[in-house]
Structures are given as structure tokens and as C-alpha cells.
Specification:
The chain has eleven helices and 15 strands. By secondary structure, it is of the alpha+beta class. The structure holds zinc ion (2 copies).
Length: 383
């Protein structure tokens, strides 16, 4: 314990300076003699500790009153001046150093025992293609912290009024400091979860937490039109709050499973239907699966591979209820891989009588018959 005048130590001329001015003066001195700035400098460390001691007294209105009235003698037995090392200083004034050196959000000191809102929960839900397109109600099971029934959320034994005592690990600061090289890292105290205190008469079921992990079944209504990444918010179905804090929400994130036959683009549903070459050429009526059961569509004669047909209103409804998509049926014209001798003869005959004189095919036939083709083939050989 220093015998120097505490006001002098902090460079304060006005003995009626405000608490805020004292804090500012201390910050200035603490930064000047900070050990990170003055490595291996015992004098600086001494000034650093002295300043902390001065601030410990003048920064506390009660101790300051005693000091103003009786000087150092007034502080006997008040636990002043216990800073053996610079680390002691950091441990005591971490809130000041926190805001001063930039890790402010972690250093507001102990959170205390006011109401705390419950956290939101996320649940990833896989739904089938049909469920996403047509809607569904799905029951899910989550494990979430809910109000402890044994203490009715008070955290104290038998639901009594909780009695709080300072946390034995962090001494009520809610933070602990770890040193790593030059860095001083502040962490939330794990014993008291940053509250600074613990319950002296804790409920044995929830160990003073007031809530406990509970299995809960929840029905989730899936509106038609959801897609992968859609987020459903179930208000109040998250973690329960503490001491009267509001409940968190449950966010259900949708993941639509791929379908063997359908795929989706926007609100339209696509599918590919194989048809025979002859069906494409002569036309036919075929049955197509849809989410609302099989539907018939007419394939006109002369349908080309990849041609698409629309089934209006059989797609996915828009989530904002602005309409409904269509089902688009693309036909895949199947060319037979194996063909009987009789089939071959018939096709050959067909080719000679029908295709030869028509459109693109006729050009190809002509190409094979013309002299140009021979020229180009010779050219290839030279290359
Ligand atoms: Zn309990
Ligand atoms: Zn603690």
C-alpha cells in the first residue's frame, strides 16, 4: 500500500473531481504505464499498480469518502492495495480495460440476475417434394431448455425465492482473464455464466438454472409452395426465458428432397415422359403422372423430341398466394435400339418413299449423292 496521495497519483488537482473525471484520469495513467507498453520496466509497473490502488479508492464513492476524511488511516482493514502484480490489476478492473482496449462487448461486467430472453432455435427439416408442393403437417421432436417444473423456473430449491451470492470463481465480475503472451483474453465465467453470482439454495433438478433440457414434440404446418431454404418461424417455440424473460422462437429451415420423376423450376414442375417414335409420328393420347394423380395429354402427330406440353395449374402454388405454376411435360422420343428384320425392311421402305423428298432429310440424302461429298472426303484424307 502506497503512502502517496491518491489524487496526486492520478494527476488530479481538484479534490472535488467527478467520478467520471477520476475514471478518465485513471485510464490515462493506466495506458501510459501499461505493461504491454513498458515491458521489463519495474518502475512503470510500480506506477501502474499505484494508479490502480488510487483508482480502487477514489473510484469507489464509499472508500473515497473515508479517504477524504481520514486519509490512508481511514482505509485500514478495507482491503485496499492488494495489487501484487499487474495481473491483479487486470483481474480487478477488467471492465475498464475492456472498454479501453476495445473488447467492449465482452466486458460489460457481470450480467446480474434480471430477466433473460430465451435463445432462438433452428431446426433443419427434410420434406418430400410432394409435401413442399402441396403442404403438410409434420411433427418434429426437439430437445430445448424449458422451464424447470420442480422450481417453476425460479432456480431455487422447491421454487423458493432464490438467494444470490457472489460467484466463487470470478468473484462476482462475471469474467475471467486468461493470459496468452502479450494478450489478455477475457472470457465469460463458466461457473456463473457471466452473471457474477450463483444461487445459494439451488434447485437440485436444474442446478439453479431455472430451466432444463426437455424433449418436446411440435407440429409444424408446412404451407404449400415452400422450397429449400424457406424459413418458417414458430413464435415462442424456442428456448424458454429466464426469470420472466420472453421465450425464443423456433426457426424451421426447409430442405426439399429431390424427386425421382419431377423437378422444380420456380413454381413450375417439370418432368420427362418417354414416347415411342411411332407415337410421336402418328400422334397419341398418353397418361402423365402429376402431383394430383394421372392426367391425360394429347400428343399431336409430328411431335418432335424435346417438345413440351403444359398442364395448366398443376405446378406449385406461390408462397405469397399470387398464383400457381404449371406442369411442363417434355417428351423424349425413344428410337428403338433393336429392330427385327421385318421392322428394318419396313423402315427402309418408309425412308425411301417418305423421308427422301422431305425437308432437312432430303438435303442430307442429296449430300450423299452429290460430288461435293467425295471432294470433302478426299480433303480429309490429305489432312
Ligand atoms: Zn429447477
Ligand atoms: Zn463467475
Amino acid at each position: 500500500m502506497t503512502q502517496k496521495d491518491y489524487y496526486e497519483v492520478l494527476g488530479i488537482a481538484d479534490r472535488s473531481a467527478s467520478q467520471d473525471d477520476i475514471k478518465k484520469a485513471y485510464r490515462k495513467i493506466a495506458l501510459q504505464y501499461h505493461p504491454d507498453r513498458n515491458p521489463d520496466n519495474p518502475d512503470a509497473e510500480e506506477r501502474f499498480k499505484e494508479a490502480a490502488e488510487a483508482y480502487d479508492v477514489l473510484g469507489d464513492p464509499e472508500k473515497r469518502k473515508l479517504y477524504d476524511a481520514y486519509g490512508h488511516a481511514g482505509l485500514k482493514g478495507k482491503g485496499v492495495g492488494g495489487f501484487r502484480t499487474a495481473q491483479d490489476v487486470f483481474d480487478t478492473f477488467n471492465d475498464i480495460f475492456g472498454t479501453f482496449f476495445g473488447f467492449s462487448t465482452e466486458s460489460r461486467g457481470a450480467r446480474g440476475f434480471g430477466p433473460e430472453p430465451g435463445a432462438d432455435f433452428r431446426y433443419d427439416l427434410a420434406v418430400s417434394f410432394e409435401q413442399a408442393a402441396r403442404g403438410a403437417e409434420i411433427e418434429i421432436e426437439i430437445v430445448r431448455p424449458d422451464v424447470c417444473e420442480d422450481c417453476r423456473g425460479s432456480g431455487a430449491k422447491d421454487g423458493a425465492q432464490p438467494e444470490f451470492v457472489a460467484c466463487p470463481v470470478c468473484g462476482g465480475r462475471g469474467q475471467v482473464i486468461r493470459t496468452e503472451g502479450f494478450l489478455r483474453i477475457m472470457n465469460t465465467c463458466s461457473r456463473c455464466a457471466g452473471r457474477g453470482g450463483i444461487i445459494a439454495n439451488p434447485c437440485p433438478t436444474c442446478i439453479g438454472e431455472g430451466r432444463i433440457r426437455t424433449n418436446k414434440k411440435i407440429k409444424v404446418k408446412i404451407p404449400p409452395g415452400v422450397d429449400t431454404g424457406s424459413r418458417l418461424r414458430l413464435i415462442g417455440e424456442g428456448e424458454s426465458g429466464l426469470r420472466g424473460g420472453r421465450r425464443g422462437d423456433l426457426f424451421v429451415i426447409i430442405h426439399v428432397q429431390p424427386h425421382d420423376f419431377f423437378y422444380r423450376h420456380g413454381n413450375d414442375i417439370y418432368c420427362r415422359v418417354p414416347i415411342a417414335m411411332v407415337q410421336a409420328a402418328l400422334g397419341d393420347e398418353i397418361e402423365v403422372p402429376t402431383l394430383d394423380g394421372p392426367k391425360k395429354i394429347k400428343i399431336p402427330a409430328g411431335t418432335q423430341p424435346g417438345e413440351a406440353f403444359k398442364l395448366k395449374g398443376l405446378g406449385v402454388p406461390d408462397l405469397r398466394r399470387t398464383g400457381i405454376g404449371d406442369q411442363i411435360v417434355e417428351v423424349e422420343v425413344q428410337i428403338p435400339k433393336k429392330i427385327s428384320e421385318k421392322g428394318r425392311q419396313l423402315l427402309k421402305e418408309f425412308a425411301l418413299t417418305e423421308i427422301k423428298d422431305e425437308g432437312i432429310m432430303s438435303k442430307i440424302w442429296k449430300f450423299f449423292e452429290s460430288d461435293d461429298s467425295k471432294d470433302s472426303r478426299n480433303k480429309e484424307k490429305q489432312d
